[in-house]
Design brief:
354 residues; alpha+beta; Rossmann fold; OB fold (Dihydrolipoamide Acetyltransferase, E2P); six-stranded mixed beta sheet; five-stranded antiparallel beta sheet; 9 helices; 20 strands
Length: 354
């Protein structure tokens, strides 16, 4: 088994009395695209800053390529960082910006120029070498920042919400380009975002953070389909959550008492266990041709057309405090005020022990 490229061991950090990271341990494999995903205040940016050497953790160690880099300054560790504001030098040409890190390393001018041109070609900006940053669009400046980071051939590239300042269309275009570039260069990328759609578009390793801890980690498909915690189920995509208590367990099935009635589900939890039943929007069925698990009836409160589908909100008739979130085909004829049966298939139910 190969050693991890990055090995974060029991890292905690405090700003004064405020604990922002709480005993975080994480391995990053070579060639992976890791997303640190979480809300504001979850600790993801602080963890990235620790990896980049801009912050020294209060406790714990960070190893990169097997070497203890915990207290190594940014310029001397095998990482580079792409910031959200790109931080390009306005008085320098694009080529000068890209070659700046090589200049700081003492690389001669001819080699700097050649490698800067190669890096710009890699990000699709070969013709921009002699331009100034102000002559480029936001997406082009983002690619210049990426080329500048990659030209020094880091072991790990750190990206701090690099797409946050871009409009939706350009952000999605840059997601595709980032993923393609990462595949070509093979460098491990660690990317901070609060956007779960961005996480699923880019990551092969998704790390969900909350309140300074790692809630869940793994391939995005697994984190989405079988989240480990209630928080992960609600932050990595939307879910309808139903709270309950296991009242019976028999032959690989359990009965869960909930506010909308008893639910018979596959599972092996003991009687008395408190659980959350999570159902993704695409797995909820509204109408008579339902799934194998009946969830009562509901009144449709809102229908939002979102291009390829309709997002439907419906209030449970059995518990008015509970709202179902469903994703239906764009051609669905459901309207606000409709009373509909709600169901799902047993195999699509996510059981989360509280």
């Amino acid at each position: 088994m190969t050693a991890p490229l990055v090995d974060i061991r029991s890292v905690s950090h405090r700003f004064g009395q405020l604990a922002v990271l709480k005993n975080v341990s994480l391995n990053i494999e070579p060639g992976s695209y890791t997303i640190l995903l979480g809300p504001s205040g979850s600790g993801k940016t602080t963890l990235l800053s620790i990896l980049g050497g801009f912050v020294t953790p209060s406790e714990g160690k960070v190893f990169i390529r097997g070497e203890d880099c915990t207290s190594v300054p940014p310029a001397k560790r095998p990482t580079t960082t792409v910031f959200q504001d790109y931080a390009l030098f306005p008085h320098m040409s694009v080529g000068g910006n890209v070659g700046f890190g090589l200049r700081m390393q003492g690389v001669d001018a001819a080699t700097r120029t050649a490698r800067a041109r190669e890096a710009l070609a890699l990000v699709g900006l070969a013709a921009a070498f002699d331009k100034k940053p102000h002559q480029l669009s936001g997406g082009q400046r983002q690619r210049v920042a990426l080329a500048r980071a990659l030209v020094v051939e880091p072991a790990v590239l750190l990206l701090d919400e690099p797409l946050g300042a871009l409009d939706l269309k350009l952000r999605r275009q840059m997601q595709d380009e980032l993923k393609a570039i990462q595949k070509r260069v093979g460098t491990a990328f660690i990317h901070v975002t609060h956007d779960q759609e961005e996480a699923m578009a880019l990551a092969d390793h998704c790390v969900v953070m909350n309140d300074g801890r790692i809630e869940d980690e793994g391939p995005p498909e697994r984190v989405y389909a079988r989240p480990a915690t209630r928080f992960s189920a609600t932050f990595m995509g939307e879910s309808t959550l139903i709270s309950g208590t296991v009242t019976e367990t028999k032959n690989g099935n359990i009965t869960v008492a909930t506010q909308i009635g008893p639910l018979s589900l596959p599972g092996k939890l003991p009687a008395g266990a408190t659980v959350a039943v999570a159902i993704r929007p695409e797995h909820l069925v509204l109408g008579e041709a339902g799934g194998t698990v009946a969830l009562g009836t509901a009144k449709v409160s809102d229908v939002v057309f979102q291009g390829s589908f309709k997002r439907v909100l419906a209030v449970s008739a059995q518990d008015p405090a509970m709202q179902f979130i469903a994703k239906l085909p764009a051609a669905a004829t459901v309207q606000p005020g409709d009373i509909v049966a709600v169901s799902c298939d047993a195999g699509d139910v996510i059981l989360l022990a509280d």
